[in-house]
Amino acid sequence: MIECAGLTKGFGEAPVLEDLTLKVAPGEALGLAGPAGAGKSVALRLFMGLMRPDAGSASIAGLDCFAQRKAVHKHAAFAQAAPALDARAHAEDYIGFVRRYAGGFSAKRAAAFEERMGFAAVGHIRRMGPEDRKKLGLLAAFALERDALLLDEPFTSLSPMARAALAGLVRDEAEGGRAVLMTAHALDDARRACTHIGIIRKGKLVVSQSAEAMRHVRQKVYHVTFASANEAAGFAREWEDAVELIGARALVAVPASPQAFIRTLARYEVVDLTGGREEGEEGFLRFHGDELT
User: Fold this and answer.
1) By CB count within 10 A, which of 25, 51, 244, 249 is most buried?
2) Which residues contact residue 187 at a Cβ distance below 8 angstroms, ignoring those fewer than 6 apart?
3) What does DSSP assign to residue 89?
4) CA-to-CA distance for 252 and 287, rounded, in angstroms?
5) Whole-model pTM?
6) Strand partners of residue 197
7) Phi/psi of residue 213, nearest 5 degrees
8) If you average pLDDT over every residue of the chain, what do you get?
9) CB neighbours of 42 closer than 8 A, spacing ≥ 6?
């Protein structure tokens, strides 16, 4: 239902998204997790035809996401990270606009969303707090009868109770036969809501596996201090994967046995080595150089 191959987009010389390839079938929910600036939101905008890719292809329901974007919008519902809401309008006006111009609006689905999320789409938007504005934008997407659901950072601005409710709604959408593609800054949100997890780092998909498998991952993270920055750079070129360099120091994530890692290090002058097991959110965020929000 949702598919891309070699999808690439850049602004200036450096690509923001590079060679992204993924598939989301009906009944699946794929959560793209990663730090801010990793390229997650750009991927969703490309799928909605809001920008032209530099290379590669993206399709929803077999339709080219840019060339056939008007047709794609009849198959996919999209919730932006920050919904575009007119502060002068009322919530009822916004829902009325969606009903008239998007098509396929289901009052039954809207009511179910409001009940699960503890929210009523009424009142002046200007008087709404960030959480209710977020819920209003999400409601507009969940209420549409579509084959695919794309959600950009849907958990931001939500309370812990609302986040738990939303995770249940996303799971229900997938179980009901929709294909769901969402982005998340926090790995835990993606794990709770999705059947599959993809981790994006610096525009590249570096991990893709089932959410169940991700729950059991114990990623070893090592901090290595080399004798010089040149030694560190040489190691990074040889090791290639999952290395973050800061001068003569390297942060290395090793998801399996450390034997190959140790043999590679033996070819370099190492001043200090520390490391151990780090699980879940802490290990993920430390490796990706971001902080929990």
Assistant:
1) 244
2) 33, 197, 199, 214, 280, 281, 284, 285
3) S
4) 8
5) 0.77
6) 31, 209
7) -65, -40
8) 88
9) 9, 16, 17, 51
Cβ atoms 83, 152 nearer than 8 A:
no
- Per DSSP, the chain holds a count of helices (H) and strands (E) of 11, 14
Q: What's the rounded Cα separation, in Å, for the pair 6 and 117? A: 37
Starting at the edge strand that comes first in sequence, how are the strands of the sheet with 55-60 ordered? Answer: 15-24, 2-10, 55-60, 63-64
**Where does residue 282 fall: left (phi above 0), alpha (psi -120 to 50 degrees), or beta otherwise?**
alpha
What is the tens place of the pLDDT at every residue in 14-24?
Answer: 789 999 999 99
User: Whole-angstrom distance between the N-terminal and C-terminal Cα of the chain?
Assistant: 32
Average pLDDT over residues 120-132: 95
d(CA 241, CA 36): 20
Q: What is the CA radius of gyration of the chain?
A: 21
Smallest CA-to-CA distance from 74 within 178, 148, 131 is with 148
Q: Give dist(CA 186, CA 190) in Å, integer.
A: 7
Among 16, 19, 14, smallest CA distance to 4 is for 19
Helix spans in 76-195 (H): 91-102, 107-117, 130-142, 160-175, 187-193
